[in-house]
């Protein structure tokens, strides 16, 4: 009896999900930013800014040990570069390292390409781009990271609890797990508006980007993701302490965090 | 009588400039208050709604299976998301659209095709947006009234590199259509696999006919030795428009020359468009040609059978013109140098 899982609304064998998710992201890799802008009407930039500001990352002046950041499923690089820029601007931190990992090499290539185009963090000894599966992170040592960030990536994991346990493994004691993801909308008016938008979105994607299936998968995967409280409980079950969340834009997305004891 | 300041809301009953409050407009005040209260509750009344549900005993109720409720809610929402389409898909890759969406598709792809006709995706979408049932029905009737056309509809051949066996075509004798097609593909650096699948046409048979039309476009190019430059494309589109009445081809043949250089327009209007119209209207319906079977046939024979005469060679004309301009430039460069020396 083959064990199955969800791929959006379809039920697929477990080993196929990663490949199917990979196809979605390969086909949208080059237009990922445009897709994000269309889906969230550009507001995702505000969310990501708030995400980074709230984290307040960076090696404090007067500290001797640089921080080690890990950005998972962050192929396109916006959070990773944003963290490094923030650390440099606020604390003058130019020593902290960043590992950007993504299961999809096309997305990772987009990120590295962006680093090249922007003229920073490309072939930089501080920044490593690696192809890794977020559920295992085979090449990341245990107890080696200060901050683990994942932005709009964890809903695509085949096995979210396993991903959370891996996050727990790679973080140092006192390290922060920090996640930005779509969540349950708390306001009924906003919810009605969102549902109409989600129904129209795949057709827009089909007409504008010739990709109906990717957008259909995306809106379904957003529905499947657990709500704020349930995900907070999952974080606690993985062993994190002081788990909490903050809903953004009345629940369209939420920042969840937890600290490894 | 003392005049007291009164607040005015709703209908003005008194002309007294000191009237601020009116006792005759309760209706307006009550409606406003109700609307404000409802909106406020929906937007910012989370604590009030929670207090209400706490009083009713719905909060932290041990008898409710929250997990099941959550899963049912998710399932309901996903089902809601799934039936957004007007009908179930009729074939693999079918995306049914509502009428408003079809209009949107036509508008967006039309604008994009006008500014970027070189992007294949725009043309493909515009083609499907303009492939109205009336046109596809008439094309179907054309196919059904011819025995070869009927065979094509029965067999439903698919034009792919593998099915055509492109490598074998290189070995065909020199004058055959198969060899001509192979040579043309190599020269233009295209392959038969570059045709996009049909998604927006609702009837499956119509969708097949449109797919066949799209796939045969390269055969028309090769038969008439038209390169894939914009002039060549417009010419072939005009041929298709005249022969099959394809709406998008008609649109393209009329509007696309407007964006060209004057010399290209002159060539089109003087030579190629008249040729396309003449040939298209008089030759046999090209949609009924079973291309896979005529690969071994001699080119000239095929053309005679279909009733096609070759147009002037577009590639040669462009090359000749380029060379003439080059010679002109060289001549004046030399003249200028000589006059400087003088």
UniProtKB/TrEMBL annotation, chain A:
Q: What is its EC number?
A: 2.1.1.201
CDD domains the UniProt entry points to: AdoMet_MTases (cd02440)
Keywords tagged on the record: Membrane, Methyltransferase, Mitochondrion, Mitochondrion inner membrane, S-adenosyl-L-methionine, Transferase, Ubiquinone biosynthesis
| Reactions mediated catalytically | a 2-methoxy-6-(all-trans-polyprenyl)benzene-1,4-diol + S-adenosyl-L-methionine = a 5-methoxy-2-methyl-3-(all-trans-polyprenyl)benzene-1,4-diol + S-adenosyl-L-homocysteine + H(+)
Keyword 4Fe-4S among UniProt keywords: no
Q: Where in the cell is it found?
A: Mitochondrion inner membrane
Q: Name one Pfam family in it.
A: Ubie_methyltran
Q: Per the record, GO CC terms?
A: extrinsic component of mitochondrial inner membrane
Q: Which residues bind S-adenosyl-L-methionine?
A: 76, 102, 133-134, 151
Q: Does the keyword Transferase apply?
A: yes
Going by the entry's taxonomy, the superkingdom of the source organism is recorded as: Eukaryota
Membrane-topology descriptor = Peripheral membrane protein
Q: In which pathway does it act?
A: Cofactor biosynthesis; ubiquinone biosynthesis
> One MF term in GO for this entry?
2-methoxy-6-polyprenyl-1,4-benzoquinol methyltransferase activity
InterPro entries, sorted: SAM-dependent_MTases_sf, UbiE/COQ5_MeTrFase, UbiE/COQ5_MeTrFase_CS
Q: Which GO terms describe its biological process?
A: methylation
What protein family is recorded? Answer: Belongs to the class I-like SAM-binding methyltransferase superfamily. MenG/UbiE family.
What exactly does this protein do?
Methyltransferase required for the conversion of 2-polyprenyl-6-methoxy-1,4-benzoquinol (DDMQH2) to 2-polyprenyl-3-methyl-6-methoxy-1,4-benzoquinol (DMQH2).
Subunit structure and binding partners: Component of a multi-subunit COQ enzyme complex, composed of at least COQ3, COQ4, COQ5, COQ6, COQ7 and COQ9.
Could you tell me which NCBIfam families the record lists for this protein? MenG_MenH_UbiE
Annotated protein name in UniProt: 2-methoxy-6-polyprenyl-1,4-benzoquinol methylase, mitochondrial
Q: What is the lineage of its organism?
A: Eukaryota, Fungi, Dikarya, Ascomycota, Saccharomycotina
The gene that this protein is the product of is: COQ5
UniProtKB/TrEMBL annotation, chain B:
Q: Pathway, according to UniProt? A: Cofactor biosynthesis; ubiquinone biosynthesis
Its Gene Ontology molecular function terms?
4-hydroxy-3-methoxy-5-polyprenylbenzoate decarboxylase activity; zinc ion binding
UniProt keyword Metal-binding, yes or no: yes
Q: Where does the UniProt entry say this protein principally localizes?
A: mitochondrion
Q: List ligand-binding residues for Zn(2+).
A: 217-218, 221, 233
Write out the entry's keywords from A to Z.
Lyase, Membrane, Metal-binding, Mitochondrion, Mitochondrion inner membrane, Ubiquinone, Ubiquinone biosynthesis, Zinc
User: What is its cofactor?
Assistant: Zn(2+)
Cellular component annotations (GO), alphabetically ordered:
extrinsic component of mitochondrial inner membrane
How does this chain sit within the bilayer? Answer: Peripheral membrane protein
Where would you find this protein in the cell?
Mitochondrion inner membrane
- Catalysed transformations (reactions): a 4-hydroxy-3-methoxy-5-(all-trans-polyprenyl)benzoate + H(+) = a 2-methoxy-6-(all-trans-polyprenyl)phenol + CO2
The UniProt function text for this chain reads: Lyase that catalyzes the C1-decarboxylation of 4-hydroxy-3-methoxy-5-(all-trans-polyprenyl)benzoic acid into 2-methoxy-6-(all-trans-polyprenyl)phenol during ubiquinone biosynthesis.
**What is known about its subunit structure?**
Component of a multi-subunit COQ enzyme complex, composed of at least COQ3, COQ4, COQ5, COQ6, COQ7 and COQ9.
Name the family the entry cites.
Belongs to the COQ4 family.
Please report the name of this protein according to its UniProt entry.
4-hydroxy-3-methoxy-5-polyprenylbenzoate decarboxylase
Q: Which organism is it from?
A: Maudiozyma exigua
């Amino acid at each position: 009896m083959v064990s199955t899982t969800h791929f959006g609304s379809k039920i697929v064998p477990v080993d196929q999900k990663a490949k199917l998710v990979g196809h979605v992201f390969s086909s949208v890799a080059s237009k990922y930013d445009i897709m994000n802008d269309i889906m969230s009407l550009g507001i995702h930039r505000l969310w990501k800014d708030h995400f980074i500001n709230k984290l307040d990352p960076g090696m404090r002046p007067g500290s001797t040990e640089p921080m080690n950041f890990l950005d998972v499923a962050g192929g396109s690089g916006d959070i990773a570069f944003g963290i490094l820029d923030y650390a440099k601007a606020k604390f003058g931190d130019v020593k902290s390292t960043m590992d950007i990992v993504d299961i999809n090499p096309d997305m990772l290539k987009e990120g590295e390409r962006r680093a090249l185009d922007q003229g920073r963090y490309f072939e930089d000894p501080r920044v490593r781009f690696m192809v890794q599966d977020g559920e295992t992170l085979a090449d990341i040592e245990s107890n080696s990271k200060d901050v683990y960030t994942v932005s709009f990536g964890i809903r695509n994991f085949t096995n979210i609890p396993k991903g959370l346990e891996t996050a727990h493994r790679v973080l140092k004691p006192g390290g922060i797990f920090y996640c930005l993801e779509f969540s349950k909308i708390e306001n009924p008016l906003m919810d009605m508006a969102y549902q109409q938008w989600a129904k129209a979105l795949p057709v827009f994607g089909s007409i504008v980007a010739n990709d109906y299936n990717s957008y259909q998968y995306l809106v379904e995967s957003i529905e499947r993701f657990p709500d704020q409280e349930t995900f907070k409980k999952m974080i606690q079950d993985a062993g994190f302490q002081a788990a909490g969340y903050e809903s953004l834009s009345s629940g369209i997305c939420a920042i969840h965090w937890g600290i490894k004891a | 009588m003392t005049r007291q300041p009164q607040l005015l809301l709703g209908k003005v009953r008194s002309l007294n400039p000191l009237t601020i409050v009116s006792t005759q407009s309760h209706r307006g005040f009550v409606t406003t208050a109700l609307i404000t209260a409802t909106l406020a509750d929906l937007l910012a009344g989370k604590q009030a709604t929670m207090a209400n549900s706490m009083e009713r005993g719905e909060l932290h109720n041990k008898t409710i299976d929250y997990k099941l409720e959550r899963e049912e809610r998710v399932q309901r929402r996903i089902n809601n998301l799934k039936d957004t389409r007007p009908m179930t898909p009729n074939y693999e890759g079918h995306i049914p659209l509502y009428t408003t969406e079809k209009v949107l598709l036509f508008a967006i792809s039309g604008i994009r095709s006008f500014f970027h006709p070189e992007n294949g995706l725009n043309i493909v979408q515009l083609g499907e947006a303009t492939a109205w049932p009336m046109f596809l029905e008439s094309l179907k009737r054309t196919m059904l009234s011819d025995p070869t056309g009927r065979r094509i509809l029965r067999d439903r051949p698919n034009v792919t590199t593998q099915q055509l066996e492109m490598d074998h075509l290189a070995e065909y004798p020199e004058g055959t259509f198969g060899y001509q097609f192979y040579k043309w593909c190599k020269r233009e650096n295209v392959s038969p696999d570059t045709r996009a699948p049909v998604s927006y046409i609702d009837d499956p048979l119509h969708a097949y006919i449109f797919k066949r039309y799209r796939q045969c476009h390269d055969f028309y190019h090769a038969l008439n030795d038209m390169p894939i430059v914009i002039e060549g494309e417009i010419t072939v589109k005009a041929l298709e428009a005249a022969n099959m009445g394809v709406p998008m081809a008609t649109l393209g043949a009329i509007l696309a020359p407007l964006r060209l250089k004057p010399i290209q327009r002159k060539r089109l209007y003087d030579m190629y468009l008249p040729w396309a119209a003449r040939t298209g209207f008089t030759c046999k319906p090209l949609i009924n040609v079973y291309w896979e079977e005529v690969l071994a046939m001699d080119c000239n024979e095929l053309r005679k059978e279909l009733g096609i005469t070759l147009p002037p060679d577009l590639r040669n004309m462009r090359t000749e013109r380029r060379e003439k301009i080059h010679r002109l430039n060289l001549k004046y460069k030399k003249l200028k140098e000589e006059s400087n020396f003088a």
